[in-house]
Amino acid sequence: MKHPLAGRTIVVTRASSQAGDFINTLESFGATVISCPTIEIAEPENYERLDEAIDHLYGYDWIVFTSANGVEYFLRRLQTRGVGVEELDELKVCAIGEATAEKLRDAHVHVDLIPSQAKAEGVFSALSDFAGGEEQLHGLNILIPRAAVGRDYLPKSLEEAGARVDVVTAYRTVVPADLDRGRLSAMLTGSADCIAFMSSSSVKNLALLFDTHDLGEKLRGLIIASIGDVTTATAVDYGLQVHIQPHETTATALANAIAEYYSRHN
Asked: In 73, 91, 113, 174, which residue has its Cα 20 to 30 A from 207's Cα atom?
């Protein structure tokens, strides 16, 4: 079927600046898309830690990027500080997934490692394998520029293996200031068929907006689509049952998985 999502309305919660390709793919499958970002990407409250890390790049063995946002905001700050990307040539660079790696390559930054699993557990495993075993992580200096709030698994695991880890805030994920709760509520209880979550933050922020830890009631009757394991775990924690999750943690894979789901259920 060429248009498996014809007649279906999908709510997309991803930040507007990043949702374009995902929305286009859904629309190419015939979907009506309502863009309702529950997340906005913002600069850090201060740059002190990030600037300090940039000034001492020579002290790191690895820099690990856990999102395309991390790449964008780190490189933006690098430029503001008058530091060229060639300063990263001496470091080994790990990108959590293909989209993150692509962002680095576009900026002419080499990528040494892309884990097969695009999540913190996959990064730790890949770094261990690359080093020649977990014990070889001992004594390595690792920089992780990321969101102000993130999972502790990766830095904790690396530190337990004996690495020295600096986690610095490169950007923040915040609730959009202009989001209309009433309009959002009306959309969710109205014509929407499915809501797509592409990060844990988008789930948490929706719960914040509705001042609840149980989204099950608010999203009753909607098909829940999640980009991957970590986002799914957060959705479940907030009272949701996830119906759709792709094998790959990418926006394209999620759009395809939504189309496949409705092809089966039409």
From this structure: 73
Token digits for 9? 């309305």
Query: Which segments within the chain are labelled E, that is strand?
Result: 9-12, 32-35, 40-42, 62-65, 92-95, 141-147, 164-174, 194-197, 223-226
Residue 174's DSSP bridge partners are 40
**Whether 209 contacts 83, CB under 8 Å:** no
Residue 30 has pLDDT above 80, yes or no: yes
Strands of 73-189 (E only): list them.
92-95, 141-147, 164-174
| CATH of segment(s) 48-173 | 3.40.50.10090
Which CATH code is given to the segment(s) 9-39+176-265?
3.40.50.10090
pLDDT digits (tens, 9 = 90+) for 143-187: 999 987 777 899 999 999 999 999 999 998 888 877 777 777 777
Fold match between 9-39+176-265 and 48-173?
Answer: yes
1 pLDDT higher than 60: no
- Report the share of the chain in percent with pLDDT over 90: 68
Say how many C-beta atoms besides its own lie within 10 A of residue 58's C-beta.
Answer: 9
Determine the residue type at 69: N
How deeply is 1 buried, as exposed, middle or buried, from its count of CB atoms within 10 A (0-12, 13-18, 19+)?
A: exposed
Domain boundaries, the chain: 9-39+176-265, 48-173
> Residue type for 171, please?
Y
- The burial of 16, by beta-carbon neighbours within 10 Å (0-12 exposed, 13-18 middle, 19 or more buried), is given as middle
Which tokens sit at 85?
């990307």
Is the confidence at residue 134, as pLDDT, over 80? Answer: yes
